[in-house]
Amino acid sequence: MKFGIHLREYRILAGKRQKELAALLGWSVSKISMVERGERPADEDFARAADSALGAGGGLLTRWRETVEHAGRFSIWLAQLVEIEQRADMLRAWEPLIVPGILQTEHYARAIFRGRPGTTPDLVEQGVAARMDRQRILERENGPTLWVVLDEGVLTRPIGSEEIMAGQLAHLAAMNDHPRVHLHVLPHDAWLTTGLQGAFMLASGPEMPDTAYIESITLSQITADPGRVLDVKSRYEMLHGDALPRRASLQLIEEKAKRWK
């Protein structure tokens, strides 16, 4: 990763050793080393903190943004998200509009990717393949436990075709039997506005800081900033608290599936 090269250059220019930079950022030396070698992606929070610690005057943060801009067909946030999902032992997600990627069928995912302005058939298929590959973490014996809260509207919003929707809801119902998947639906009559700002995912594990992935229409963000993560956690707890229990959620999914058959 090119950002790692820039980080090393700015660190040396500032006369800092990896140990000193790690102490300033509250990271381990091994993590600093992994970022510099391109073995670990860096998020914007890290780039901003490193820029400040090294007195880069915004130069290092600019290099990070340039890396993101030219990251190729897989954006840097997606690479980071995949790494986070691989390391986490628990994922908690909220989705107000569509089925989250980790639970999408291939046909549903393809319909979602086709809706992006300016996309091409090749890019659509690349996106679908990457999304299906991400889902393999649920097949691992030591994979993460997944908690998902879906807005009820997700079950009735037409995506692709009636056949695609029928297949997607059948997949959700089947995933409810997965030993590590806990699926809950937030009903319309909950009258809750907490999650209307957008989708998010929380990731936690013994060897990683609690991390939040926050989704928006043009720029997705990944942050381990304690204050921002706490805010996302609070929102998730409110949504989960008002969602239907697991069995009632399954019944609602099966009920809504009937309209698509």
General description of the model:
The chain has 261 residues and is an alpha/beta fold. The protein has helices spanning 2-13, 18-25, 29-36, 44-53, 59-69, 76-87, 106-114, 121-134, 162-175, 226-242, 246-257; strands at residues 90-95, 145-151, 181-186, 200-205, 208-214, 221-223. Strands 3-2-1-4-5-6 form a six-stranded mixed β-sheet, sandwiched between helices. Helix 1 (2-13) packs antiparallel against helix 5 and helix 4 packs antiparallel against helix 5 (59-69). The radius of gyration is 20 Å and the shape is elongated.
Overall outline: elongated
- Main beta sheet: 6 strands, mixed
Give the termini distance in whole angstroms: 47 Å
Structural class: alpha/beta
- Main sheet: which strands, in order across? 3-2-1-4-5-6
Specify the helix fraction band: 40-55%
